[in-house]
Amino acid sequence: MSAFKTNFFVVVTLIVVRIQAALWSTISDCDETFNYWEPLHYLLRGKGFQTWEYSPEFALRSYSYLWLHGLPAKILGLVVDNGVVIFYFIRCLLAVVCALLEYRLYKVLKRKCAGIVCNMWLFLQLVSAGMFISSTALLPSSFAMYITLATVAAWLNEDSKTAIALTALSGLIGWPFAVIVAVPFTLEQLLWKRQIVPFVKHALFYGCLFGIPIVLIDSLYFGTFTVAALNIIRYNVFTSHGPDLYGVEPALFYGKNLFLNHNIAFTISVTSPAVVILAAAVRVKNSKNRLSPIQALWLMMPLYLWLAVFVVQPHKEERFLFPVYPFFSLGTSLLLDQTFSHMKRVFGASKSSIANRTMGFVVLATALCLGVSRMLASSMHYHAPMAILDGLPPANDQEMNVCYGKEWYRFPGSFFLPPNYRARFIESSFTGMLPAYYQETENGTQIVHDYFNDQNRGHPHMLFDLNECDFLVDLDTGASYDEQNKEPNYSADKETWTIVESIKFVLAARSDMFARAYYVPSYPYIVYGNYNLLQRIKVN
Question: N or C: which end of the chain has fewer CB within 10 A?
Answer without folding.
Answer: C
